[in-house]
Design goal:
By secondary structure, the protein is α/β, with parallel strands linked by helices. About 35% of the residues lie in helices and about 20% in strands. It is globular, with a radius of gyration of 30 Å. It comes from Lysobacter silvisoli.
């Protein structure tokens, strides 16, 4: 077994580097070296168009012809990037003889330097290497890290770099300095940078630097979990779940989404069910305040999107009134996900020019919906109401002018493995839901576009069409 590689980062700014090869691979390597500030010489008989353009503009130096050992004079690093194994071997041998570090593309054994997979956020870089033995594994890990490391980490690294001397002067002892960084990184500064509030982040940093050791302040992130498919959770939502100390989650948040969360986070179900409110909204407010005041990072995890019939506005009003730091991470709301997963376009130039998102559950249970507007044609209704009240909905819409033969798609467990779609006409709606025992969570799409579910469906089983005669026989 070969010895492990010694990881390091090379300062190539202003230093001469040789790339042998004039094709696409050489161009890619040259770009990375230029980004690092290197003075790049590219040796090859011919250059592909972009490399040739760089040479013409003076960004690189072109050494025409076949490789010669003299090209390595005054070189700090060489890269062999040709499609000729003999040429690559010659570059490696000549570099070894001159004690010049060399990377031979796709040849780990011939290389004295390996170029790792890399994730970069400003000055912050994470490098991954398998020593050339498992490049697909390093690529896989890089892709995972790309999803987990927020772009704002670059700004955070720049801030800490600028303030490094001040931090060392304020906390000369290593232990105190470590505790300062623990507080800083768990405090409001990273969140403010994510929100693109640079000045506020600088003020928070100054307060932390001047404040000395103290208990950190807590915060709350409202995260939209989407309709159930964990693949629909946003990258920012995933990061918040991995940073959480406490997760207050709705009943309808799928187990698959919860499994993505930090394993040692405390999970508290605060779901509310129609007719059986296990946790009142006021109690949810109390829990958010209690845990945030204890210095914890709280995630309020809500199905769909927090600001679409999710009472997210009420919750951040409470947090703001009590001085608790918060942010909101949108989620894919049920109307968008259920429509997409059942093959129903919410708008279509032949059928619908507008969409209305509607809930039948108003705050005071008053019937204050604009039924005349809802009954208009050439629009799509996405109704968030589960399966309760379908008969009343049908009767009101027909009474206000909606055609009884308007198509509907009633989607149960949208985006999940157990998704079911029932289709029919408005007149059949309540009977169809009962005949197929549609349960919650379910979303109703009503309008001409709903008919497309039968031809455009792609996820799960084909839609179920209501058959009155069969239902009566049963």
């Amino acid at each position: 077994m070969s010895a492990p590689l010694f990881p390091l980062f090379a300062a190539l700014c202003g230093r001469a580097v040789l790339v042998v090869g004039g094709g696409a691979v050489a161009q890619r390597k040259t770009q990375a070296l230029l980004d690092a500030g290197a003075r790049v010489r590219v040796g090859a008989p011919l250059l592909q168009p972009e490399l040739a353009a760089w040479a013409e503009r003076g960004l690189i130096e072109h050494l025409p012809g076949r490789f010669e050992p003299a090209w390595l004079d005054e070189i700090w690093l060489a890269v062999a990037a040709t499609d000729d194994d003999a040429v690559n071997a010659a570059v490696a041998a000549a570099a070894e003889a001159r004690r010049v570090w060399v990377n031979v593309v796709d040849d780990a054994e011939a290389s004295s330097v390996h170029v790792p997979s890399r994730v970069q956020r400003g000055p912050l870089q994470v490098a991954i290497s398998s020593g050339g033995g498992a490049p697909m594994l390093t690529r896989h890990l890089r892709e995972q890290l790309e999803t987990q490391l927020d772009d704002s980490l670059g700004e955070l690294a720049e801030l800490l770099g600028r303030e490094r001397l001040r931090i060392r002067a304020r906390y000369p002892a290593l232990g105190a300095r470590r505790r300062f960084f623990d507080r800083l990184l768990a405090g409001p500064v990273p969140a403010l940078l994510r929100q693109r509030r640079g000045r506020a982040a600088q003020r928070a940093f100054e307060a932390e630097l001047a404040g000395g050791e103290r208990t950190r302040a807590g915060s709350v992130v409202l995260v939209g979990a989407g309709p159930g498919d964990p693949g629909l959770l946003t990258l920012r939502g995933l990061r918040a779940l991995n940073e959480a100390d406490v997760i207050l989650h709705d009943r309808l948040v799928s187990a698959e989404v919860l499994r993505l969360a930090r394993r040692d986070a405390e999970r508290i179900e605060v779901g509310k069910q129609s007719g059986a409110h296990h946790t009142t909204q006021e109690r949810i407010h109390e829990l958010m305040l209690e845990h945030a005041r204890a210095g914890k990072r709280v995630v309020r995890l809500k199905g769909g999107d927090p600001f679409v019939f999710g009472r997210g506005g009420e919750e951040i009003e409470v947090l703001r009134a009590h001085g608790i730091a918060y942010e909101v991470v949108p989620g894919i709301t049920a109307a968008l996900a259920c429509a997409a997963y059942s093959g129903v376009p919410l708008t279509h130039r032949d059928h619908a020019q507008s969409v209305r998102l509607v809930t039948a559950h108003t705050k005071d249970a008053d019937d204050d919906l604009d039924w005349v507007a809802l009954a208009q044609e050439k629009q799509t209704l996405a109704v968030y109401m589960g399966v309760a009240g379908l008969q009343r909905l049908r009767d009101r819409l027909i009474a206000h002018g909606r055609a009884p033969d308007t198509p509907f798609a009633l989607i149960e467990n949208g985006s999940r493995a157990e998704q079911r779609t029932v289709v029919g006409t408005l007149a059949e709606l309540p009977d169809a839901a009962q005949a197929h025992a549609v349960g919650s969570p379910a979303l109703l799409i009503l309008g001409e576009v709903a008919a497309l579910a039968e031809t455009l469906h792609w996820h799960g089983a084909a839609p179920l069409r209501y058959a009155p005669a069969l239902a009566a026989a049963a």
